[in-house]
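Hey,

Quick one before I head out. I ran the complex with flavin-adenine dinucleotide overnight. Inputs first:
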Amino acid sequence: MSNSSGRAMLYSQAVLRPMIDLREFVPLAPYTTLQIGGPARFFVEAASEAEVVEATLFARDRGLPLFVLGGGSNVLVSDAGFEGVVMRVGVPISRRELQEGESVLLEAGAGESWDDVVLYAVDRGYAGIECLAGIPGDVGGTPVQNVGAYGQEVAETIVKVRAYDLQTQSFVDLDHTACRFGYRRSLFNTEQRGRYIVTAVTYRLRPGGEAALRYADLSRYFATTLDAGEKPTLRQVYDAVRSIREQKGMLVGQGGADGRSAGSFFKNPVVPSAVVSQVALGAGCRPDEVPQYPAGDGLVKLPAAWLVERAGFHKGFAMGRAAISSRHTLALVNLGGATAAELIALRDAVVEGVEGRFGVHLEQEPVQP
Ligand SMILES: Cc1cc2nc3c(=O)[nH]c(=O)nc-3n(C[C@H](O)[C@H](O)[C@H](O)COP(=O)(O)OP(=O)(O)OC[C@H]3O[C@@H](n4cnc5c(N)ncnc54)[C@H](O)[C@@H]3O)c2cc1C
């Protein structure tokens, strides 16, 4: 194999095994929404489950690390790139529906655009994922961090995740309980991180169900656009969520500098409720003025955006070519040509600023391969 950039080769373990199209030294930046990151030593787009297996064998036989990439909307690739095999999962565009009692079980391939699946469900009157409109990325990425927005989480609907288990080298069906979902977490990004390659996800949806209106932003939106007592349709909620997202620079496919982000860069910290008075002290306000949401077991969830703002980092704050979005305090953006090192320097400044002021540590959301 040569060092020539982007060189392609076909690989198969044996006769009657699928050929996979491997490329070498492929820049990863174009495959991420941040548009940051150096090259992958090997890059393969796996278009079927058989190709997923073949690519894992290629990596295993050479002792190379493997990184699974979806839509690249929640990753921060280093400037050095990835010294292993990056597998972009494109498997397989097949949508299957099964009626089960009052519900519809909708199965989608890991490589499908998530927003397309939401629109498909909404157009058929299937409730359950309408508030998750406009989120970038693919179906396969949704269970990984239990995607959530505007009061809904994908875990509320997931009944089955089909995945290739690298440990047992076989395909498995994981049910809802096995996925161990929590706030922005699951089996796939915690204790079994890197073990499974998701190839399909099944969502339980409610035909004819009402749209979820649990979030203040959404209720405000409809207070001005609907008559009192009128309930929005699923399609109206889908459109409203996309419109609110667009104003915040958080909509899939949005252009400009604010579009070059990984969405929220920090998770909302969940802390013991006693920490609230310490936060109030740092903010110079009363404890009851600190925004907080009960998170069970004596814990509260604090809005990371509020902490970041109160620590003195405002929308548009820039360090070199990395900045806080001009429309959303939690999104770190690439102003154009930013390196991973620049983004990490900004991240560290924000994390240290918040920790210094409030004693609360902000956890990063995007994954670093
Ligand atoms: C503008 C913007 C807005 C966003 N808004 C939200 C939001 O409101 N709520 C929210 O929760 N997230 C949000 N995100 C984050 C992101 O869109 C989601 O986390 C999304 O589900 C990631 O999917 P992906 O296909 O892009 O995964 P990637 O970014 O490619 O990968 C993310 C992680 O999932 C793993 N992964 C991906 N596919 C697979 C697979 N098939 N099998 C196994 N592992 C896999 C990767 O290895 C990596 O660890 C936003 C991002 C952007 C850019």
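The chain has eight helices and 20 strands.

Talk tomorrow,
K.
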